[in-house]
């Protein structure tokens, strides 16, 4: 049962990333582990930042949505 649960978790995470839903829980875990002295964005800040990175076109980025 635990292998099934792990596989489901990975499948869910992969599907979310494929359709553009960022993984906030993974971000929080990473920040607590590797950057404990730095602030952690709220979910709203994190979501806006990820959407901005994905869809913004600037001088340095040639690619936006589609």
Secondary structure layout:
Layout: H1 2-18, H2 24-34, H3 43-55
Tell me what the structure shows:
The chain is mainly α. It has one domain. The chain is built from three helices and no strands. It has helices at 2-18, 24-34, 43-55. It is flat, with a radius of gyration of 15 Å.
Strand fraction band? Answer: under 5%
Helix run count: 3
Taking all Cα atoms into account, the compactness measure Rg is 15 Å
What can be said about the biggest beta sheet?
Answer: none
Low-confidence blocks of residues: none
Tags for this entry?
66 residues, single chain, 0% strand, 3 helices, mainly alpha
Short structural summary:
By secondary structure, this protein is mainly α.
């Amino acid at each position: 049962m635990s292998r099934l649960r792990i596989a489901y978790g990975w499948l869910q995470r992969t599907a979310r990333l494929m359709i553009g839903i960022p993984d906030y829980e993974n971000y929080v875990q990473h920040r607590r582990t590797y950057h404990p002295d730095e602030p952690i964005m709220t979910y709203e800040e994190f979501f806006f930042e990820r959407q901005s990175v994905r869809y913004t076109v600037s001088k340095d980025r040639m690619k936006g949505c589609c």
